[in-house]
Amino acid sequence: MSTFNTSEIEISIFFLIGIPGMEHANIWVSIPICLMYLVAILGNCTILFFIKSEPSLHEPMYYFLSMLALSDLGLSLSSLPTMIRIFLFNAPGISPDACFVQEFFIHGFSAMESSVLLIMSFDHFIAICHPLKYTSILTSARVINIGLAFSLKNVLLILPFPFTLKHLRYCKKNLLSHSYCLHQDVMKLACSDNKVNVIYGLFVAATGILDLTFIFMSYMMILKAVLSIASQKQRLKVLNTCVSHICAVLIFYVPIISLDVIYQFAKHSPAIIRILMADVFLLVPPLTNPIVYCMKSQQIRNMILGKLCQKHS
């Protein structure tokens, strides 16, 4: 693997990194990674299939679940090409244009997942705090419009990323820090002024923090409403409806926050910790969300079991 060290030569290829020190075992590392991608893609496709084909699931909460599954599916498919190339074929090279396209999709679907988790928290808030108004507030048309509005917002939010990166010059370093392209990682390689990228990157990060803040506020109001219920059994029953969503929020945000803390306060920590945490951020949510929701949603679970029983009978 060679790198360019002269300022006159413009970088024509970036190099991604797998797991440092384990390059000799890439083929073995690729096995669990491929299995994780396979389960994630099949799991999210299964949820989308049942929600689309079963009329009884044509309700707001399942529409939001299908949006989450689409975000997870997009996140998996965005990172899949480079992860497979590195670990299965030992080919870490990627052209700058392909790298910019990948980081657009990764950040776009990440932003969409954050938005969907926010929408789902409002869905739980309305269902628990205003149950009589739920059907009038969240009509099918309104749910579709909300989904389209947030999708458009996230596309417009992330769209400047590849264009601002493309206008930078890359002439000294070409080794990235992860197995896929991220905006903050690519812009550090630039040898020209990247203040615009830094400022806009912070703005995009702030929107994610805003989503998390609103999710937290929603659950504070939900908790207040639950505590006003006299029966402890009823309280637990109501809170149980939020377990899947709380798990999804933790699975998505904990790796992001942990990675940010490591970059800010533990800059001298081993690189492998940052790399593994970044891989967890992309691999684990799409893998675990379908499992959690299939376990907690009795309707989806019964349909899957019913289909399996039909095949065996």
From TrEMBL:
GO terms for molecular function: G protein-coupled receptor activity; olfactory receptor activity. It is a multi-pass membrane protein. This is Olfactory receptor 51A4-like. Pfam families: 7tm_4. One of its GO terms (cellular component) is plasma membrane. Putative odorant or sperm cell receptor. Its main location: membrane. CDD domains: 7tmA_OR51-like. It is found in: Membrane. The chain crosses the membrane at residues 27-50, 62-84, 104-122, 143-163, 198-222, 243-265, 271-293. Residues 43-293 form the G-protein coupled receptors family 1 profile domain. Keywords: G-protein coupled receptor, Membrane, Olfaction, Receptor, Sensory transduction, Transducer, Transmembrane, Transmembrane helix. It comes from the Eukaryota. The gene is LOC117797729. The keyword Membrane applies. The keyword Transmembrane helix applies. InterPro entries: GPCR_Rhodpsn (IPR000276), GPCR_Rhodpsn_7TM (IPR017452), Olfact_rcpt (IPR000725), OR51/52/56-like (IPR050402). SUPFAM superfamilies: Family A G protein-coupled receptor-like. One of its GO terms (biological process) is cellular response to lipid.
